[in-house]
Structures are given as C-alpha cells and as structure tokens.
Amino acid sequence: MATADTAAEQDQARHSYNDAVAKLFDQLHCGGGTIHEQAAKMGTTIDESHTLGAGIRLQDLDAILPASRVSTKNVGDRHTEDGMGVPVVGWKKTAEEGNPRWEFEPPTGVPLNLTAVLRFPDNQAPQWAFRYPGKAKEEPVGSHPMKLAADWSAPSAFYWHMSDLDDFDLEKVFLPSRFSDETALYVSSPYDPKRIPLIMVHGLNSSPGAFKRLYNELNREPWFRENYQVWFFSYPTGNNWTYNAAKFRFAMKQADKYARQHGPTDRWDKMVVIGHSMGGVITQASLKKPGDRIYKAFEDRPLEQLTTNRKTISAVKALAMYEPVETPDRVIFMAAPHRGSPMADRFFSNWMMKLIRLPKTMTVDLVDFTLNDFASVMTKGKASSKGWFTSIGSLSPSYPPYEALRGVSFRNGVKIHSVIGDRGKGDTPNSSDGIVPYWSSHLDKVESELIVPSNHSVQNCPEAAVEAKRILKKHLEGR
User: Fold this and answer.
1) Structural domain ending residue among the three candidates 126, 156, 186
2) pTM reported for the whole predicted model
C-alpha cells in the first residue's frame, strides 16, 4: 500500500499531467484544419481504434470542446469526478434529411461525453485517445490503472443549449401546426435493449427541456447511467390533450414494435414514464381503456348514425375509443391535473385560447381529419365555443373526458406514484402548486404520494429528484 507521501505525490503528478493535457487540448481543438492536422502539428497522433459512442467516430464530429467551457447554469449543479484526463464534449449534428439516421434520433444533434488523455507509447509519438468514462472507467498508466476524470453535466447542458427541443415553448402553444412534425419519441442515444427505457413527457408551455435539471440529477448516478436509457416525447402543446394522447399512443406503439424486433424485451417491458403537468394527463389517459365512455361524454347517438365517412370514424375511435398502451410498467406523475385546472377557466386563459392557431388538418394513426369533421360528430357544437380543441380549453375541469376517465381503472399491473407541489405552505389537502390544486393531482390507491415544497415546476424540485431516484432504485430491485 502506498504511503501518504507517495499518494500525495501521485495526486500532484495527476494534476500536473491534467493541466498540461488541458493546455495541449486547447491547441488541438482550436485553429484551422482537421483535428488530425492539428495533432500532427504538435507531433502527436490520434487513436482511432474505438468508436466514441453511438457508433460515432472522431472524424464524424462537427465540434469538440472542453467541458469546462460549457455552462451548466440551466441544468443545475455541475457533477464531476476527479481522475486522469480532461473531460470534453463532442458534438455530432443530426444527419440531413435523406441521409442515414438511427431510429428515434433526436433533432439538432448528439452530444458525446468524453475524456481526453495523452498517451506516451514506447518508441512512438504521443497519442491522443478519447474515451467515454461511463464505459472505459480507467486508463492504464504503466502497470497501474487510473480512474478517468468525468463531467456528467456538460454534455447534456450543451445539448439543451443547441437543441430545437428546448426552444419556442410559447410558439408551440400558439402555433402548434408549425411544430407538428416534431411530435415524436426521441431517445438520448441509440436504442439499447440492455437498459430500461425512462420516458419523459412534458407539459403545457413546455418542451423536453423541462426535464433537463431532473435528467442532470439522475445522470450523475452510476446505477442510473448503467441501467436506464432516457427517451423524450415532444409535441406541440397548443393542441387538445386528447389529440396529443392519441399521438403519444401511436408513437409508443411504433417504439414497442421496434424494440421487439431488436433483441430481448425484458428490460423494455420494465419501462418507466414520468409525466409532468399535461404530460401526466396524456400518460394517464393512455394507460386506461375508456371503451365508449369518452365518446358518450360528448355524444348520445351511435357513431355509425352520425357519419359514414370511414376516416372520421377511424379518427374518433383513435381519439376516444382506444386500447391502452401495453407498456410502461411504472409511472411517476408530477403535478398532473387529472381532473383539470381551474386556471383554464379564468379570463386570461380564455383570452389566450383565442390566440391559438390550430392546424387545419390533423393526423392520428396515419388518418387525416379536419376539426370540422371531428366537431360535426363529437361535440354537439360546444367545442368551438368552449375552446376544447385547444390545450388550454381541454384543461378546464368541465372538459368531459376528465369525468369519463375518472371511473376507469388503470391498465392491470402498472404501478403509480404521485409527486405534488404545495408551494411550501404545508396545507394539503387544501393545497395547490399555483396551477393545479391537490384535489386534481391526487389519485387514490397509488404506490406512493409525496408532497414537495414546490410550485408547478415540480420536476425541478430537489425533493422530487430524490423521490424519483428512490422510485427508480426500487424499480431496479423489482419491488
């Protein structure tokens, strides 16, 4: 065993090495020419014997920069680990339309979490190597392996800085047609059947970026990185949540089909969903089999008596008379208005509804229909006057599907958890997070319910992150 002096000397040597490598890396990634040309200028070479992750090679990168230069302000605390090497962030732009992409690849680009080391092989020029610290956790120094340094926050912070998924939140409310093509599931790295999918569904006036702080807190944990893979469902939030729920179910079916064609599904079948705000409503509705209850909440007459248009009939069934998704195995609701929000009925909200410009044509389960088609069959003329086609209108407690779903049980086997904010007032059950009252977020017969001192942005609350970790660890243990 090394003495204290020897350990201190080793630590000092590591710091000196890292300082020198950091200065040399600044020369490597700056200036004109390729990274190989820059390496040659300083008398070094680059190890290309390994891919960097996601099947990406070093020459595929569009940028590479020191992690220390990436601000993590918008994702929370910076989570790092001391070790050998310099944490860096690689960036690969998403392939242009028509070029090969991996399934469910996120828009804009992919960040890579890397550690740069400079090796000194015998009788050869010094060699740069870039390793993913989550997999290659050590770097050999002589006969002694040394732990790699890591920055677990910078890559995701850089992604949210660059990503289209974290932009234009208000435009997604008021101009949902502009963002309809983004309605999809995206996975943070190529699908891995060895890891449990954790799907995050955002709420109104929001985007997948609403989860960036929670993701940062989860991703700092080795057990999380090794066992879970994060997916995001993105959708334009100006549309009625019933419609967005149908799009969610369709996306989930596509992902389920893909997973079952690509390896074992034991981990896939352990899927967990976190739904915040309206994302919780979308998730809740998709885990129930309403039969004809939603349809009858709008219309007394049989569907076939109202229209002979097969596309309209198919659209109505997809929106209101559907089968629940077969996954997930567990759900965490965060500030979800299961019975609506009184805020949707207030004057300011009614004024905002009038500003929303809905798409002229909507698609669900590959069937196109217009709002007029749907209104003529389902709403007895009330949808337009009450704004039910808009997201804000569909969050009114008077929106009929809330009462229709209230008496419907969740799909068999799914485990339910609730995290609810009370703004720190401690006044539950008379509490509210400022947007959603407790009586709307509360569900009976859940595995757990936690009240946290938060406003409606529960997913950003430290206590909520601790609770999410507790639940996800419990899930790993099969409890």
Assistant:
1) 156
2) 0.89
